[in-house]
Amino acid sequence: MLDFPVIYLILAWTYLVNDEKISSIGCYVRDQLGPRLGELVWIHSMVVSWEVCQRNVPGRTMRKQLRTTVDLITYLVLPMVGTTASWCSPTVQSLFALASLTQTLALGVLSWQFLRHAGRGEPAGAVPRA
To answer: Which end of the chain is more exposed for a tag (fewer CB within 10 A), N or C?
Structure first.
């Protein structure tokens, strides 16, 4: 039962890192590459308008909040249910309990990262807007 939360941790960190990289690419295209391309082709409007347009779609905030809720349920609540069930087992061993406490701390850090990323709308390390 010990590997159940570990698998969730690995999948969640991978998902979060990939999401952050994709967000960073979008930020770069929107804020850096688009304006540079516009200057090169002497067009004063946004050359790469998708990155701006898709952020202004009605309901985006609600979809983002729902996605964060689903992410937290998938990557935090479900592993904690498994861990709690294991703690309640009469055959729980002290080494397992110590490992599961470490995993629980990692799940807490992971949930903080999900909430931090969702609250900003921009990933960590994103190029700030001018």
So the answer is: C
24 lies in some domain:
yes
9 part of a folded domain = yes
Token pair 């009605």: residue: 58
Q: What is the pTM of this model?
A: 0.63
Paired tokens of 117: 């990323």
Task: Report CA-CA distances (Å) from 80 to 87, 89, 112.
Answer: 10, 14, 15
Distance CA 19, CA 22 (A): 5
Domain boundaries, position 107 = 3-120
Read off the amino acid at residue 92.
Answer: V
What whole-number distance in Å separates Cα of residue 77 and Cα of residue 33?
39
Query: Structurally, how many domains does the chain consist of?
Result: 1
pLDDT at 61 over 70: yes
